[in-house]
Amino acid sequence: QVQLVESGGGLVQTGGSLRLSCAASGRIFSINTMGWYRQAPGKQRELVATITSGGSTNYAASVKDRFTISRDNAKSTVYLQMNNLKPEDTAVYYCNAVTIIMGKYLEHWGQGTLVTVSS
Questions:
Q1: What is the pLDDT of residues 75-102, one digit of tens each?
Q2: Other CB atoms within 10 A of residue 90 CB
Q3: Nearest to 26 by CA among 9, 5, 50, 8
Q4: Is 34 exposed, middle or buried (0-12, 13-18, 19+ CB in 10 A)?
Q5: How far is CA 11 from CA 27, 60, 89, in A?
Q6: What pLDDT is stored for residue 28 in this prediction?
Q7: How far apart are the first and last CA of the chain?
Q8: Cβ of 60: how many Cβ atoms within 10 Å?
């Protein structure tokens, strides 16, 4: 199993910045892709950004050029630098990790961290 613990959420004004962190523990050797998803009140969970073990990244169109995902494999930690935040970025942000064990893909989720952007 893999455990994920997020930190770094909080309240920020429009145009401000926050940095989220997600530390993985457990069977970290099996982790392939890590990423961030978010869920706003009354909406479905959506992809924000992902990063593979090789460093390839993917972003939602709504955050591209404002958010940057990075990964420190030595620390088994993934980060999300969020700049120029907007009220519509308000959501619970969840860390995600995909493990591959004996050809089987499994998804793991953190408990979530709340980001609130005030206008």
A1: 899 999 999 999 999 999 999 999 988 8
A2: 18
A3: 5
A4: buried
A5: 33, 22, 11
A6: 81
A7: 40
A8: 15
Which structure tokens are listed for 71? 């990964």
Place of tokens 């892709």: 33
DSSP letter for each residue of the chain: -EEEEEE--EEEETT--EEEEEEEEESGGGEEEEEEEEE-TTS--EEEEEE-TT--EEE-TTTTTTEEEEEETTTTEEEEEE-S--GGG-EEEEEEEEEEETTEEEEEE---EEEEEE-
Structure tokens at 108: 């793991």
Give the integer Cα–Cα distance in Å for 87 and 100: 36
Nearest to 20 by CA among 84, 80, 86: 80
User: Residue 18 half-sphere exposure, CB side, CA atoms within 13 Å?
Assistant: 21
